[in-house]
From TrEMBL:
Belongs to the 'GDSL' lipolytic enzyme family. GO terms for biological process: lipid catabolic process. This is GDSL esterase/lipase. The keyword Lyase does not apply. One of its GO terms (molecular function) is hydrolase activity. The lineage of its organism: Eukaryota, Viridiplantae, Streptophyta, Embryophyta, Tracheophyta.
């Protein structure tokens, strides 16, 4: 169990409506709909509370320090990517799937978050639902018909986030580096399968983030005292992103007038890192590669306590001054800045 907790803290990256009336569907096709609900699939960059408390540091202090001022299952001091995308759409952040029984029906109308921190496209070391399983949950909710109807889906947005846990698992299993390109092709091919499935279920707008610059995560820059990115890791992220662009271009060509959009995390992160001046909405971080929360025994262990309950981690004076919260996850202020950079590119989601 301790290994499981450590792994999560390190690597957290149909036919049911065929009877619908054709005239109503035709009306939907001819009408531009701004997304008014959000369905989320992915890992710790978008999980807002699905992961179990017993295995995740995200339910321990100091996580949630900024928002909601207590741990909430988010892998940050506050809000994460899901929250900022929902805010851009003008809706409330969707309820986590595991909380659905405790939420009122009105709250569920904003969508549902199926993401689990530590998971991937395929099976990772962590025994939690991967993306295929998350889409299974989504399909079951749709089939039940007591929360969402087929008519809700064309005005919805799916957010499919993969932050690198499949590749972290590859490294943890000590697989030969020469096998990595083939794995990346498999991962991107499966992402394509997954988003096609979501599209077939009825969601016509799907946003897919590119991989962030993996070599700039504090887990990769710690050996340089958080001063320099690892260009080999960044090259791997670029390779993944090139494959993803090709897959999305193919999807858009084949499924017109649907919209598949890549959220360019790679360049958005770098834009924030390099910001030296007053770019609107983007904070200037003094050392953007240095995390706010680090463990005393190991950089990775933000939230550790000793047998007496004494803190075995340190926190920076002002989390709002740090881009990264821990060695793999942005702070709330980091995510705010990323989405400020992305804002002008998100307008296509509103058409």
């Amino acid at each position: 169990m301790e290994f499981l907790k450590l792994f999560i803290s390190i690597f957290s990256f149909s036919s049911f409506f065929l009877g619908a009336k054709s005239d109503h569907l035709q009306h939907i096709k001819t009408k531009s709909l701004r997304p008014n609900r959000l369905f989320v699939f992915g890992d710790s960059y978008v999980d807002t509370g699905n992961i179990r408390k017993s295995i995740s540091d995200s339910w321990k202090l100091p996580y949630g320090l900024t928002f909601p001022e207590k741990p909430s299952g988010r892998f940050s001091d506050g809000r994460v990517a899901t929250d900022f995308l929902a805010r851009y759409l003008g809706i409330k952040s969707p309820i986590p799937y595991t909380w659905r029984e405790y939420a009122g029906k009105e709250r569920l109308l904003y969508g549902m978050n199926y993401a689990y921190g530590g998971t991937g496209v395929f099976k990772t070391i962590i025994p939690l639902p991967n993306m295929t399983s998350q889409i299974d949950y989504f399909q079951r909710i749709l089939a039940a018909g007591n929360i969402y109807s087929p008519f809700d889906l064309p005005s919805s947005l799916a957010f499919v986030s993969v932050a690198g846990n499949d590749y972290a698992t590859f490294v943890a299993m000590k697989r030969p580096l020469a096998e990595l390109p083939a794995l990346m092709k498999l991962v991107v091919d499966q992402i394509e399968v997954n988003v096609r499935r979501i599209h077939k279920l009825g969601v016509k707008k799907i946003a897919i983030p590119s991989l962030q610059p993996l070599g700039c995560l504090p887990g990769s820059t710690a050996f340089t005292s958080f001063q320099r990115c690892n260009e080999l890791d960044n090259a791997a992220a670029k390779f993944h992103n090139n494959l993803l662009r090709q897959a999305v271009a193919k999807l858009n060509k084949e499924t017109k007038p649907s919209t598949f959009v890549i959220l360019d995390y790679y360049n958005a992160f770098l834009t924030v890192f390099k910001n030296k001046g007053p770019e609107p909405g983007v904070k200037r971080f003094e050392n953007p590669l240095k995390p706010c929360c680090v463990g005393v025994r190991s950089n990775y262990n933000c939230s550790d306590v000793d047998e007496k309950g004494e803190k075995m981690y340190t926190i920076c004076k002002d989390p709002k001054a740090a881009f990264f919260w821990d060695v793999f996850h942005p702070s709330e202020e980091g995510w705010r800045s990323v989405y400020s950079v992305l804002r002008k590119h998100l307008q296509v989601l509103l058409i």
